[in-house]
Amino acid sequence: MKLKFLGATENVTGSRFLVETENCKVLIDCGLFQERELKIRNWENFPIPPKEINCVILTHAHLDHCGYLPKFLREGFKGKILSTPPTAEIAQIVLLDAAKLQEEDAEFKKKRHHKEGRKGPYSEIPLYTIEEAKKVFPYFSPIEYKKQFQINSSIKVTFYDAGHILGAGMIEMIIKENGGEKKIIFSGDIGRWKSPILSNPTVFENADYVIIESTYGNRIHDIQEKNKEKLERIIVETKKAGGNIVIPTFAIERAQELLYYLSRLFKENKIADILVFFDSPMAINVTEIFKKYPDYFDEETNEIIKKGESPFDFPLLKITKSSSESKKINEVKETSIIIAGSGMCTGGRIKHHLVHNITRPESTIVFVSYQAKGTLGREILERPKQVRILGEVYPVYARIEKINGFSAHADKNELLKWLSYFNKKILKKIFIVHGEPEAETELSTLIEQQFTTEVIIPKYQEEYVI
Length: 466
What we know:
alpha/beta; Metallo-beta-lactamase, Chain A; Rossmann fold; seven-stranded mixed sheet; 14 helices; 31% helix; globular
């Protein structure tokens, strides 16, 4: 059996892992690379002809885990796409949104480049279109948590709750080969203990091989209880200054968690008389999917629902679906909270809100999620004197804040906690992926201090026989 790493190696996006046996090829995740210097990989031919892949298994619906699927089908893939039911629904929204943004960005850049008298090699055409995204939908084959699925005579897979976003799964893969049996656990993105809305991540005892994410492998999050307090302080201080609170957010989980905390703050009278604009069509649609799956929520959230309350709604919440409604937000004179995508500021409506607020010292840009290297969000987070947005350069006068405790990813202590449940006598190898080099290296050192198991940080397209 071979394990080949085709993405999320020494970086945090482009999750793609190939498991190959004598009679089957399975791809775990099929994500987009989002770092500027790695985006070229999205345009390259896939390293293995997609028609040779028997099936794709998605851990969850974030773009860096599912966003390559339309191009993958275009290149020849015809197998099943296995995921949990919420992941199947959310991924379809994510793919449509990604295709729409790519079409719009390509058209915008084409006009800009024509005006500037230059031409980009790829930026003037979309990676895939809305119609190509729609072609993916019939291939989804949803499977509930803890229900084993037989891919073929030698491979069985089961999804377990990752506690990361709605429907996110850890994958247990059992492979029969040469008269023996091997168990591999793909962590996907590991959630946090005691986070709002979702359950704690699943832990395991037995496995031969583990592929673990390391997004925050060198960091410790703020205490979760402080999230609401810090958000309250930022809102109150910015309102006093007369500016806006602009929050770039991912449409899945982070947006819903923000609504959850804001609804609590309003209910407790900690903030008042502030309009909250939920300016992300995708996040609005995803929130509706959340409402369909209360069985995936933790006990605390379900108790709120039983009282007849919505954890995602409050009187001053304004939903802006159309682009015309979005543009009108910037005409509002009083302090507003603006929640918009994308989470790393790589596209979407957030860029326009940044243009209107980043030069205002009275406004605050609040980051509540991970910002990968090479993204606009990371650039702003590093507080430069000026930044380029939509082709124009703007001075950065706005206050820049980061709330680490909102992360849907486990920090280094929680990653070690998750690993600690495995039987160290059985575990043969631990592969560290989905992290920047500094995070992977520190997590590797910490694991080696506690385990005698071999720890490997694979490189792009490296292959291992296991």
